[in-house]
Design a protein that fits this description.
There is one protein chain. This protein is mainly alpha-helical. Helix content is 73%, strand content 0%. It comes from Nocardiopsis coralli. This is Methionine/alanine import family NSS transporter small subunit.
């Protein structure tokens, strides 16, 4: 693999896993209340 391919792979992994971690921490800090209807 070339250097640019490795850099792009690392960037995409950071974006994906960073978004997942941000979503999980947001849900932990602000849990959704279930609808009681």
């Amino acid at each position: 693999m070339s250097t640019s391919a490795i850099v792009m792979m690392v960037i995409s992994m950071v974006v994906l896993w960073g978004g997942l971690v941000a979503a999980v921490t947001h849900l932990i800090r602000n849990p959704e209340e279930p609808d009681e209807s």
